[in-house]
Every structure is written in structure tokens, then in C-alpha cells.
Structure of Ubiquitin-related modifier 1:
Amino acid sequence: MPVSIKVEFLGGLDVIFESQRYHKLTVPNNEDESPIILKNLIDYIVNNMISDPKDVEVFIENDTIRPGILTLINDTDWELEGEDQYELENGDVISFTSTLHGG
């Protein structure tokens, strides 16, 4: 069953997402019917939401969220929730906040 969630791109990340900070998404089922995990969401974001291929490296490094981007699952650090193996649930709020600022 697809999962409906809210995704937030904060700390300047919104510029690679058409300047929209908040998105309501429905993440589709996996072909093998396995649970939908955060890694599936990350792949969905890269494949469907980042329009300029050059911007992928702003968000992803070594096939995971780039260091310097704080990732929260329902306001809890993703490291406490299993990182990209977290099983998504309807109503989850996933926040990505860049901590890298120019100065």
C-alpha cells in the first residue's frame, strides 16, 4: 500500500525543489511488495523531485543523504530511528535541513 507523508526541505535546500519547502507525497509501493523504507523515499526524491541533475550532489553523497544535512523523522534524528531503513508510515513528517551555510 502506498504511504502518504509530508516532506520538508529547510535551511536552503528548498532552492533545489522549486523553492517549495513543504511537499505532501504519496510514495508508491515497491515492486516486490516489501515495506516502504526511507531509502525508497530518498530514491523517489532523487528520481522525481530534483529537476536539475547537477543538484543531486547537493542532496546525496555515496548513495545516502549528504553529510551536513540533518534528517529528522517526526522530529527525531534519523540515527535513532534506523536511518534509511526506517519503515515509513502514513502521516510521517520527514525533514531535511541543511546545516551548511555560506558566510
Observations:
- The mean pLDDT is 94.
- The chain has one domain: 3-98.
- The first helix runs from residue 38 to 48.
